[in-house]
Amino acid sequence: MLEIGIILAGTLYGLIIGLAPGIGATTGLIFLFSFISYFDPYNAVMFCMAIVAASTTFDTITSIMLGIPGANSSAATIVNGFPLAVKGRAISTISAAVTTSTINGLIWGGLTFIFLPYYTNIVLYFGIPHLWGLTIFAFTLVIFISKDWKKSAISLMLGILLGLVGVDPNTNVDRFTLGWDYLADGIQLLPLVAGLFAIPELIQRTKNVRVVKEYKQIALGIRYVIQNKLLALQGGVVGAIVGILPGIGGAAADWIAYSIAPKHGVKNVIAIEGANNSQKATSMIPTVLFGIPGAPFAAILIGLFSYINFEVGTIDLLEDIRFFDHMLYGFMAGSVFACIICFSLMSNIIHITRIPYKYYAPLIFSIIVFACVQYTGGWEDYIILFIFSLLGICVKKYNFNAPALLFGFILSERIEALTIQMVALYL
């Protein structure tokens, strides 16, 4: 019973950080350093894995309902998920997303944690050139998700340029900051995403959300997944492959899944969310076997595990079957509990769709602004949100590719680091 309580507590904690815009598993795990030492070490592992599984499921709700990401890895869900919610299909879309993410989480979680000690040789085949090539391949896919590939290419390059704002890793000198010290740490993701996706929708949206009976939408979402089961499994495979590649992260998996799936409607959401949880599971392969984080959240897990005396990447840990068992139990049970809680919360979510748009639009706008100005809390936060809101309006008006811009921004640091390593090693 103690173990079940710990997993449930991790799931509820994952609910909180998943629903909070822009936090996600990475930031949520950082908070654990203040109290994780009070846990039994193995129970702490189980607690952490439940958080990872649950927060990945719950951040979908924020992305679909508000048009702002619960985490980086749920940003792609906004593209089609939020417009569907605006049209009155929020519950069916969330139902479909939770169903596909849970199924893929259980499939790939089982395949990962049960056989984790046998995966040693897989990651060894991927060096710097392979990771660089995969990232370039992902860029290529994103460019051609639009009929106008030229505008997609421009959007991608603009995103990369925005991602380079900050400090030059070679010289440690500010670049592209225009002398504005606020940009020394780079452009924050949340105001960029809100400006590109949420604000333009709020401005242009005028109709009330159409109400559909809750139970019908839940059943419809599950039926969507059954009807598109191959698409859901395809997303899971994409997420699983990206997950085993060190450092790529969930954002790349979601955007690749987005680019090779149907581009509109709930089918696209099903593919994206299929990649979400599977990537979280398989990213633990390089993390545990070699001490190389498979995603940003995994880097925090390495620190947490070390804090409770589990040194990843060591022979002693690979021989600790109890450690792997607790990872398995935490992730799998956390996925199931998260699914149950999500469906239980549908009756609360449906109330949002009954409120006339003119009444809840200011509330959504307030939540967006509040989330986006937490970086410093000063006037600069408001200015940067305003700038990217104008950019988002222009992107939408002139049919540029907002997902490509966001994708370039998220992976700009990764492609720069890999390019520098490629040049140093081979030129």
N-to-C CA distance: 58 Å
Give the H and E element order.
HHHHHHHHEEHHHHHHHHHHHHH
> How much strand content do the residues show?
under 5%
Shape: globular
Give the helix tally: 21
Query: What structural category characterises the helix and strand content?
Result: mainly alpha
Total domain modules: 1
- As a whole number of angstroms, the C-alpha radius of gyration is 21 Å
Strands in their spatial order, largest beta sheet = 1-2
Secondary structure tally: strands: 2
Mean pLDDT: 80
Summarize this entry quickly.
The chain is mainly α and about 425 residues long. It is built from 21 helices and 2 strands.
What characteristics describe this protein?
427 residues; 21 helices; globular; mainly alpha
Topology:
Blueprint: H1 2-19, H2 24-30, H3 41-66, H4 75-86, H5 90-114, H6 120-123, H7 128-143, H8 149-163, E1 166-167, E2 174-175, H9 189-204, H10 214-227, H11 229-243, H12 250-260, H13 266-282, H14 284-290, H15 296-307, H16 315-318, H17 321-344, H18 346-354, H19 357-372, H20 379-397, H21 402-426
Antiparallel strand pairs: 1-2
Helix pairs in contact: 1-2, 1-3, 1-17, 2-3, 2-15, 3-4, 3-5, 3-13, 3-17, 4-5, 4-9, 4-13, 5-10, 5-11, 5-13, 5-17, 7-12, 7-21, 8-21, 9-19, 9-20, 9-21, 10-11, 11-12, 11-13, 12-13
